[in-house]
Amino acid sequence: MIEVGDAVFQKKSSVDINFSSDEPTDFPVGLQISEKYNVVYVVTQHGFIHVFDIESGTFIFRDRISKETVFLSCQQESNGGIVAVTRTGQVCAAFYISVRFDICR
After folding, report:
1. Which residue of 16, 44, 59, 91 has the lowest C-beta tally within 10 Å?
2. pTM for this entry
């Protein structure tokens, strides 16, 4: 990860994303940054959310937010989280609070 532009943050990190062995064809469909919690959310097509520390790239958490195919995700600025929409129209919201996730299914 590297900040682009007039950056004070000049640190680069390369991080592998470990996908579920149950879903070998899974891949990222969204990446959002939470300035509130200093984390990066990676949402995958098969409904998983991966959370990484923004500065170090350290893996924090992974969970499944939907069993349906996710095709869209965006930042939810009001709580520092994300909103994801599935192929069936299901809306999933996730946000990071200390070391706990609240996931709407």
Report:
1. 16
2. 0.77
pLDDT digits (tens, 9 = 90+) for 8-55: 656 666 788 888 788 889 999 999 998 888 889 999 999 999 999 888
Burial grade of 100 (CB within 10 A; 0-12, 13-18, 19 or more): exposed
Contact yes or no for 2/12 (Cβ under 8 A): yes
Helices vs. strands in the chain: H and E counts, helices first? 0, 8
* CATH number for the domain running over 28-103: 2.40.10.480
For residues 90 and 71, the answer to whether their CB atoms sit within 8 Å is: no
Q: Collapse the DSSP code of 67 into the 3-class scheme (helix H, G, I; strand E, B; otherwise coil) and give the result.
A: coil
Could you tell me the residue ranges of all domains in the chain?
A: 28-103
**What's the rounded Cα separation, in Å, for the pair 38 and 9?**
13
Burial class (CB in 10 A: 0-12, 13-18, 19+), 89: exposed
- Nearest-5° Cα angle at 85, 79 to 87: 170
Q: Are 94 and 41 in contact (CB under 8 A)?
A: yes
